[in-house]
Amino acid sequence: MAIRINGTDVPPPADARVSLLDLLRDDLHLTGTKVGCNQGACGACTVLVDGERVLSCLTLAAQADGRSVTTIEGLRGEGAPHPLQSAFIACDGFQCGYCTPGQICAAEAMLREVESGMPSYVTADLAAGSVVLSREEIRERMSGNLCRCGAHNGIVDAILNVAGERAA
Protein backbone atom coordinates (compact mmCIF):
# COMPACT_ATOMS: atom_id res chain seq x y z
CA MET A 1 0.00 0.00 0.00
CA ALA A 2 0.94 3.64 0.19
CA ILE A 3 0.35 6.68 2.36
CA ARG A 4 -1.40 9.47 0.48
CA ILE A 5 0.29 12.66 1.67
CA ASN A 6 -1.16 15.92 0.38
CA GLY A 7 -2.56 14.05 -2.61
CA THR A 8 0.60 12.14 -3.51
CA ASP A 9 1.14 8.44 -2.81
CA VAL A 10 4.25 7.76 -0.77
CA PRO A 11 5.51 4.30 0.16
CA PRO A 12 5.59 3.63 3.88
CA PRO A 13 9.09 3.61 5.38
CA ALA A 14 10.93 0.30 5.50
CA ASP A 15 11.52 0.77 9.23
CA ALA A 16 8.20 0.31 11.04
CA ARG A 17 9.49 2.41 13.97
CA VAL A 18 9.59 5.69 12.02
CA SER A 19 7.10 8.26 13.29
CA LEU A 20 4.82 10.07 10.88
CA LEU A 21 6.53 13.30 11.98
CA ASP A 22 9.96 12.00 11.03
CA LEU A 23 8.69 10.70 7.69
CA LEU A 24 7.17 14.08 6.88
CA ARG A 25 10.10 16.22 7.94
CA ASP A 26 13.18 14.07 7.37
CA ASP A 27 12.21 11.93 4.39
CA LEU A 28 9.71 14.13 2.52
CA HIS A 29 11.10 17.53 3.59
CA LEU A 30 7.63 18.80 4.53
CA THR A 31 8.94 21.03 7.30
CA GLY A 32 5.70 22.90 7.95
CA THR A 33 4.86 20.24 10.52
CA LYS A 34 6.89 21.22 13.56
CA VAL A 35 8.74 19.23 16.20
CA GLY A 36 7.63 20.60 19.53
CA CYS A 37 7.85 18.45 22.62
CA ASN A 38 8.04 15.13 20.72
CA GLN A 39 5.87 13.69 23.50
CA GLY A 40 2.35 14.58 22.35
CA ALA A 41 1.87 17.41 24.84
CA CYS A 42 2.06 20.56 22.69
CA GLY A 43 0.25 19.94 19.39
CA ALA A 44 2.91 21.58 17.18
CA CYS A 45 3.08 18.40 15.08
CA THR A 46 -0.70 18.15 14.45
CA VAL A 47 -1.66 16.89 10.98
CA LEU A 48 -4.88 15.48 9.55
CA VAL A 49 -5.23 11.76 8.91
CA ASP A 50 -8.41 11.01 6.99
CA GLY A 51 -9.61 14.44 8.11
CA GLU A 52 -9.05 13.87 11.82
CA ARG A 53 -6.33 15.58 13.82
CA VAL A 54 -3.49 13.43 15.05
CA LEU A 55 -0.20 14.13 16.75
CA SER A 56 2.34 13.01 14.19
CA CYS A 57 5.08 12.61 16.81
CA LEU A 58 3.04 9.84 18.48
CA THR A 59 1.82 8.22 15.26
CA LEU A 60 3.90 5.64 13.48
CA ALA A 61 4.09 6.22 9.74
CA ALA A 62 3.01 2.59 9.33
CA GLN A 63 -0.29 3.48 11.01
CA ALA A 64 -1.01 5.86 8.13
CA ASP A 65 -0.51 3.17 5.49
CA GLY A 66 -3.54 3.20 3.18
CA ARG A 67 -4.78 6.48 4.65
CA SER A 68 -4.75 10.12 3.59
CA VAL A 69 -2.50 12.57 5.44
CA THR A 70 -2.85 16.32 5.07
CA THR A 71 -0.16 18.64 6.38
CA ILE A 72 -0.18 22.42 6.51
CA GLU A 73 1.37 22.39 3.03
CA GLY A 74 -1.63 20.42 1.74
CA LEU A 75 -4.31 22.68 3.21
CA ARG A 76 -3.81 25.62 0.89
CA GLY A 77 -6.13 26.09 -2.05
CA GLU A 78 -5.31 26.60 -5.70
CA GLY A 79 -2.79 29.42 -5.49
CA ALA A 80 -4.44 30.85 -2.39
CA PRO A 81 -3.98 30.33 1.32
CA HIS A 82 -6.49 28.27 3.27
CA PRO A 83 -9.19 30.45 4.89
CA LEU A 84 -7.75 29.65 8.33
CA GLN A 85 -4.31 30.77 7.20
CA SER A 86 -5.75 34.08 6.03
CA ALA A 87 -7.76 34.47 9.24
CA PHE A 88 -4.73 33.78 11.43
CA ILE A 89 -2.93 36.60 9.61
CA ALA A 90 -5.88 39.00 9.80
CA CYS A 91 -6.55 38.30 13.49
CA ASP A 92 -2.93 38.21 14.67
CA GLY A 93 -3.33 34.54 15.54
CA PHE A 94 0.41 34.01 15.70
CA GLN A 95 3.55 35.70 16.92
CA CYS A 96 6.60 33.52 16.37
CA GLY A 97 4.56 31.21 14.14
CA TYR A 98 6.10 27.97 15.38
CA CYS A 99 2.83 26.46 16.62
CA THR A 100 0.75 27.93 13.79
CA PRO A 101 0.81 24.95 11.37
CA GLY A 102 -0.39 22.60 14.09
CA GLN A 103 -2.94 25.14 15.30
CA ILE A 104 -4.37 25.54 11.79
CA CYS A 105 -4.56 21.78 11.14
CA ALA A 106 -6.23 21.26 14.53
CA ALA A 107 -8.65 24.12 13.89
CA GLU A 108 -9.66 22.67 10.52
CA ALA A 109 -10.43 19.31 12.13
CA MET A 110 -12.18 21.03 15.04
CA LEU A 111 -14.46 22.94 12.69
CA ARG A 112 -15.40 19.67 10.99
CA GLU A 113 -16.18 18.17 14.41
CA VAL A 114 -18.43 21.12 15.22
CA GLU A 115 -20.15 20.94 11.82
CA SER A 116 -20.91 17.26 12.43
CA GLY A 117 -22.43 18.08 15.85
CA MET A 118 -19.73 16.36 17.91
CA PRO A 119 -19.95 17.73 21.48
CA SER A 120 -17.01 18.60 23.71
CA TYR A 121 -16.58 18.68 27.47
CA VAL A 122 -18.07 22.18 27.65
CA THR A 123 -20.94 21.73 25.17
CA ALA A 124 -24.02 22.93 27.04
CA ASP A 125 -26.68 20.74 25.40
CA LEU A 126 -25.46 17.28 24.49
CA ALA A 127 -28.81 16.30 22.97
CA ALA A 128 -29.11 19.33 20.67
CA GLY A 129 -27.46 17.68 17.67
CA SER A 130 -25.63 20.90 16.89
CA VAL A 131 -22.94 22.83 18.70
CA VAL A 132 -22.94 26.56 19.36
CA LEU A 133 -19.36 27.62 18.74
CA SER A 134 -18.41 29.96 21.56
CA ARG A 135 -15.02 31.23 22.67
CA GLU A 136 -15.15 28.75 25.55
CA GLU A 137 -15.99 25.90 23.16
CA ILE A 138 -13.04 26.79 20.92
CA ARG A 139 -10.65 27.08 23.87
CA GLU A 140 -11.68 23.64 25.12
CA ARG A 141 -11.40 22.02 21.70
CA MET A 142 -8.02 23.64 20.98
CA SER A 143 -6.56 22.98 24.43
CA GLY A 144 -4.20 20.32 23.07
CA ASN A 145 -2.40 22.93 20.96
CA LEU A 146 -0.20 25.25 22.97
CA CYS A 147 1.04 28.69 21.99
CA ARG A 148 3.88 29.86 24.18
CA CYS A 149 3.76 33.40 22.73
CA GLY A 150 0.27 34.10 24.02
CA ALA A 151 -1.59 34.50 20.72
CA HIS A 152 -4.59 32.51 21.99
CA ASN A 153 -7.09 35.38 21.66
CA GLY A 154 -6.11 35.90 18.01
CA ILE A 155 -6.34 32.17 17.37
CA VAL A 156 -9.86 32.06 18.81
CA ASP A 157 -10.86 35.14 16.79
CA ALA A 158 -9.50 33.57 13.59
CA ILE A 159 -11.44 30.35 14.16
CA LEU A 160 -14.64 32.25 14.96
CA ASN A 161 -14.26 34.27 11.75
CA VAL A 162 -13.83 31.16 9.59
CA ALA A 163 -16.69 29.39 11.35
CA GLY A 164 -18.92 32.39 10.63
CA GLU A 165 -17.92 32.39 6.96
CA ARG A 166 -18.69 28.66 6.66
CA ALA A 167 -22.07 29.12 8.32
CA ALA A 168 -23.05 31.99 6.02
Can you offer a commentary on this structure?
With 168 residues, the chain is α+β, with helices and mostly antiparallel strands. It has two domains: 3-75, Ubiquitin-like (UB roll), CATH 3.10.20; 83-167, Orthogonal Bundle (DNA polymerase, domain 1). It is built from six helices and five strands; from the N terminus they run ββαβββααααα. It has a five-stranded mixed beta sheet with strand order 2-1-5-3-4. A hairpin with a 2-residue loop joins β1 (3-5) and β2. α3 crosses α6 (152-167). It is globular, with a radius of gyration of 16 Å. The model has no long low-confidence stretch (mean pLDDT 95).
Helices and strands in order:
Layout (H helix, E strand, L loop, with lengths): L2 E3 L2 E3 L9 H8 L18 E4 L2 E4 L12 E3 L1 H4 L7 H8 L9 H16 L19 H7 L10 H16 L1
Parallel strand pairs: 1-5
Antiparallel strand pairs: 1-2, 3-4, 3-5
Helix pairs in contact: 3-6
